[in-house]
Amino acid sequence: MGEDVKHPMRGLGLSSLCLQEKKLVGAVSVAVEAILAQFSSSRTVVQKGTRALSGDSAINPSLGRLVLQCLCPALHSLLTDGLKPYQSDLIAGRRPNSAWSLVQASTRAPKTHALFSLQVRVGELPQLRQSKHRFNAFLLGLLTKLLDFWLSYLQSCSVLETYYHPTSFMRLSQAACQPLFEELLLVLQPLSLLTFNLDLLFQHHHLEPESHRPEIPSPPFPDPGSQLST
């Protein structure tokens, strides 16, 4: 099952495949709507003129939980749809794939400097031992107006053929299901109009069992929007 095949889903037409992928986009849309609603309602709690505080996970931890428990799983499901289980390497042999390994592979080019800086910062956090936790932290950092940029870059990236089966969402988004990818970007667009300031270690600090070691506070990732290259 780990190898590409020409007809991995016999009997399913492209319309049926796109219908499955539409459900993945729908889950992201539900998560975004929940975040927008929470973001809006939390504005009544903070003082007038400090709207940006609604997106600060230190002041509004409910938002951080919502991002981690709704948006991150929805995007993880979408980006691991049709992901090959492993990569073959002449030296290292078979290496398991994950959403985090996809992040690493897609943030190496010079024109993705802001993405690469974020990926390195996340990878250097010793508290994040699991690849899924690193992926979640990366998404928290992307919410400083880089999420749609990364997804657009990923869709055009040469790593797709290496990492995905032909029937994956990302591969189909380059052809038959391209309108769905455009819909995904439209769904995510409202998030780029908000100001997020999320602790990259929010999951470690708030959603995981107490550690034996004292928590090490992590400053939020600064807004790198000005570094975004096109």
Automatic annotation (TrEMBL):
Domain RUN: 62-203
Database matches in InterPro entries: Run_dom (IPR004012), Run_dom_sf (IPR037213), RUSC1_2 (IPR047343)
Entry superkingdom: Eukaryota
Gene Ontology cellular component list: cytoplasmic vesicle
Name of a matching Pfam family: RUN
Region (Disordered): 210-230
UniProt xrefs under PANTHER family: AP-4 COMPLEX ACCESSORY SUBUNIT RUSC1 (PTHR15591:SF11), RUN AND SH3 DOMAIN CONTAINING (PTHR15591)
Record protein name field: RUN and SH3 domain containing 1
